[in-house]
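A.,

Following up on our hallway conversation. Structure tokens first:
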């Protein structure tokens, strides 16, 4: 009887402890975790960075140049052609495409900057003869214009050109056994 009493005490205390622990375990096992609500960031419309760089706008006097400099070298190293759609600008990078609009006529022309100038005080751009004709300023020689451009962005890294893979020429192989000549 002594042993049964000890077992009762042990199991009684153990049972009491188990009865306290088991409900807690059952809650962990049976309970479903509810994930926290997702964090929703405000919708912001992102614009891709402009590949050409910042837009430049200027308003000022334009003039044109032609016959006296035709065939001479420009600041970019090109030969000046008065019949090409080119222009001289004091600060825009060489090769920049610019749209020049005559504010009196509303006509526009796209030119490529390939020279430096103008050197006359108060002038913003010198157009080739052909460009000046297109916007209707060749007779007056000077006109108030709006210049809009996006300078070309310089490449950040020089890319190596792919080289042509040369195939090795097949080596002629003989499969015949060597023939010994009689001596």
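Then the amino acids I'd put at each of the 183 positions:
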């Amino acid at each position: 009887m002594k042993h049964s009493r000890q077992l009762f005490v042990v199991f009684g205390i153990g049972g009491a402890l188990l009865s306290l622990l088991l409900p807690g375990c059952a809650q962990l096992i049976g309970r479903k975790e509810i994930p926290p609500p997702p964090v929703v960031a405000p919708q912001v419309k992102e614009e891709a960075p402009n590949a050409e760089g910042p837009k430049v706008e200027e308003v000022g006097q334009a003039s044109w140049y032609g016959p006296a400099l035709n065939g001479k070298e420009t600041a970019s190293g090109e030969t000046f052609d008065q019949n090409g759609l080119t222009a001289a600008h004091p600060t825009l990078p060489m090769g920049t495409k610019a749209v020049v609009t005559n504010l009196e006529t509303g006509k526009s022309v796209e030119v490529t900057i390939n020279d430096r100038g103008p050197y006359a005080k108060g002038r913003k751009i010198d157009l080739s003869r052909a460009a000046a004709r297109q916007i209707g300023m060749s007779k007056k020689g000077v006109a108030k214009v709006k210049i809009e451009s996006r300078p070309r962005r310089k490449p950040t890294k020089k890319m190596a050109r792919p080289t042509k893979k040369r195939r090795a020429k097949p080596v002629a192989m003989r499969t015949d056994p060597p023939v010994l000549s009689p001596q």
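Helices lie at 2-30, 129-134. Curious whether your intuition agrees with the design.

B.
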